[in-house]
Amino acid sequence: MRTVIAPSADLIGVRTAALELYAEQLREQECGALEDRQKRPLTEAVRNSFRKDRTLAEGYYDWVLYLLKLKDQISVGVDVGIQLSADEVDGLRSVEAAFQEFRREHPPCPRCGALNRSFAVVCWNCRTKMKE
User: Fold this and answer.
1) pTM, two decimal places
2) Disulfide: which of 23, 78, 110, 116 matches 120 by Cβ 3.0-4.6 Å?
3) Local mean pLDDT, 10-residue blocks, the chain (132 residues)
């Protein structure tokens, strides 16, 4: 018998899913910049080399995407018209903590602001030298 855990009750899983989604988004941006520089689409093999497998059930990513949409609505002053549940509040905190962790590990370029890996020598987006 398998135990089913609701993603909203697993804050470590929510944080992990958020970190993976942030990393996916950065890899997609890097692929797009590489395509722009090459003036042609990347081959499927190259594009796949940028991908990583997700480590959690799809429900975690759906929950995090819902929380990110909710966070965006709240941040622009949209009245969501509902009382947030404890799971939503805890989830929003986990997503924000994951974002802050991701930002620490991916410093912005001093010129264009694109997030880069901490070990990057030059910005993937504008090719500016990163601070040491």
Assistant:
1) 0.81
2) 116
3) 77 96 88 78 73 87 95 85 89 96 93 90 90 74
